[in-house]
Amino acid sequence: THEKSHKTPRFECEECGKGFSQLRNYKYHVSVHRGTKEFAAKCPECGKMFNDKGYLSSHLKIHRNKKEYSCPHCPKSFNQRVAFNMHVRIHTGVKPHKCNECGKRFSRKMLLKQHLRTHSGEKPYQCSVCGKSFADRSNMTLHHRLHSGIKPFACPICPKAFTKKHHLKTHLNYHTGYKPYKCPHPNCGQSFTQSSNMRTHAKKCQFKPPDSEFV
Prior knowledge:
Number of helices: 8
Family: Belongs to the krueppel C2H2-type zinc-finger protein family.
Strand order of the largest sheet: 1-2
GO cellular component, one term: nucleus
Helix content: 40-55%
Shape: elongated
Main location: nucleus
Distance between the termini: 57 Å
GO molecular function, one term: DNA-binding transcription factor activity, RNA polymerase II-specific
Organism: Anopheles maculatus
């Protein structure tokens, strides 16, 4: 079928063994090995290279800020159909990508790919400082900040800064007084700014039932 012809690799690179289902992608890949990039199309705005004029046209919308695809469920809009389709799945709950090992489903192919590494044990991303390996690039980037000292998430109220966004979010609870983590035990009602503080409290709470999961 037409759909199958796009998914099945028909062209294999003799240099590295990578497979391609479309000839134009294969030809561009080979030209990269040769150092020519003869099939490339270059973005006049940022210089980024693409192996197809159609991909370049889609990329140019980012610079022109043309957001043609509006989400029917929320105010967000997108300039690329692929990004729009992935976003809509957040609302619809559609998860078309299934893990053959455990049956877990994902809304994006990239998330499935990352998940598969939990089964295979593959950790392709290595810290250049200490050599520690990670299954996905984002965790490696977060780890690398421990060495570099970079803390990109700064508190707008005090001088503190953090390596992770959710650490900043938790810290802001101290300034605002927001306590989103409530004790799960009936008749208690205490709330906390951090989930760790809530769990510590729940273990010792006077209202804790005998069958509580907090031990």
